[in-house]
Amino acid sequence: MYIIVLMTKMLQVVKNHYLLVLFVFFYLLFSLFTYKVVPIGNSEEYRYLRGKETLEHFIYGQFTEKMLQPIPNYFLYNLYPMILVYLNPNFYYEWFHLMNLAFSLLGFVAVYFLSLEITKSRRLSLFSMLALVLFPGFFGQLAFNPIDMPFMVAYLWVLYLLIKYSKNDSNHWSTILLGVLIGIAQGLRQLGLTLYIVVVALDIYDYLMNRNETKWKLTRFFKERFLKYLYIFITANFFMLITWPNFAVNFFKSYIWYLFVGSNFYLWDFGLLFFGKFLENHERPWYYLPFFQLITYPYFISILFLSIIRFFKENLKNRTYFVLTSAVIINYISYFALKPVLYDGIRHFLFLVPLIVLISVKHLKDLLQLIGKKYQLTIILLIIINLFGLAYYSIREFPYQYVYFNKIGHLFGNPYKLFESDYSNTKYREGAEWIRDTYITENSKYDTSNPKEMLRVYVCDNAYAVDYFSHKKFLTVIHKEDSDLILCDYRNKLQSDYEGNSVKEFFIDGNPVLYLIRTPKEYQLL
């Protein structure tokens, strides 16, 4: 009897959310058919190795000497990579990418339910998910980004739980779940700490919207809520500590360091390519993030989001709208106030993309209700044209479509020469495969398994990916003087000015982003 009741409820859920079920089905189908062609990002190996070390610490008690080293020698929160390594101990990157795609699906599910809350429309909820799939700079990097992607998932689910359960007292089960998710979010990125502000902001909002009913003073209201805040904070930090052994070595010192590491991230200072010049950290302009959002976001998303000037006031009574806009505003304030060391375009703020898309979809609904049918059809047609353009680009450039600039970016010149483009250096996979399958075939003297006679390639970045996809048909070397070929991305080539004849260029959107150079040594042998 219990099984029949359970199945009846499940069928009802499927019926109510059949569009979500269809999306999940096709998303998983897409993942299963494409995960093997996903490239390796240049920071993946480092993340998974740190996850492996953390896993060995928990299981075997090894690497304890590294645990005792002062932060920030081992400054990463490795829970998610640790779980992936546990499930994939042989480091098959294809499996890592499949698991990343599967986990990112939880983010899309959160977007669906958040959209349902804000628009009350299942069709618009489906549209929100599809808009993210056709957002090249977002969807294109989910499979090879084991940090910003899980942070995005955790952040979205915290916001959804707040919308659904924030009015409950501290004894409700959601308090513990909120604490755990906030703990994961703040461990993955310091920006997760902004969730505490969102929690308080939502309570103030609820108080102001219902003060005529409660008739409480604000001080009494916060006194009643303080215990819940304390429970969430303790749960979040306890969970973060038990899953982050380095941090737990010296909690207070680590916490103070962690609060400000974003502004003093000395481990990254390789020169930021911005408007064709290499800038040091202190030279990074204040408008770096909004500018990159302007030149990499789809047009209709940017335009609809900026219409917040028109629709903000009338949407304030929408509780979900308030939460999403508050999260965006709080993070922008944090960005401008703390001036974090940013690079790689929008990657560190990847979690803002779903929030901005959700707000934009709500504005679209408001706009369509405001204007006549003639203009409605015009707007819908323009959005469809934009989506078809994005779909064409994504299919043509797959699996490297995360490198995307809209036409605004081209107004300043060639954005692939002016700004960071393939910042995860994923194109090295194509370069490695071409050397393996074409160059060695055309130069048969290198078609050997003798290490002394094998082709030697110096790689400017992402050497692990090149070695992984070489299938051991050639060797990667750490000194360019020992190499026959140099495989180099545009950024490193521009900085280093390597000598030699170009053998082949590898393109994204018709622009060379990776170069294969024959060294003088190799040229003399031919």
From TrEMBL:
The molecular function terms in GO held by this entry are: pentosyltransferase activity
Q: Name one GO cellular component term.
A: plasma membrane
Q: Which GO terms describe its biological process?
A: lipopolysaccharide biosynthetic process
Q: Which residues cross the membrane?
A: 17-38, 95-114, 126-143, 149-165, 172-188, 229-249, 255-275, 287-309, 321-338, 345-363, 375-395
Its keywords, alphabetically, are: Cell membrane, Glycosyltransferase, Membrane, Transferase, Transmembrane, Transmembrane helix
Q: InterPro entries from the xrefs?
A: LipidA_mod_glycosyltrf_83 (IPR050297)
- Which compartment or compartments is the protein found in? Cell membrane
- Claim: Glycosyltransferase is one of the keywords in the record: yes
Highest taxon, organism lineage: Bacteria
User: What name appears for this protein in its UniProt entry?
Assistant: Glycosyltransferase RgtA/B/C/D-like domain-containing protein
Could you tell me which species this protein originates from?
candidate division WWE3 bacterium
Q: What is the lineage of its organism?
A: Bacteria, Katanobacteria
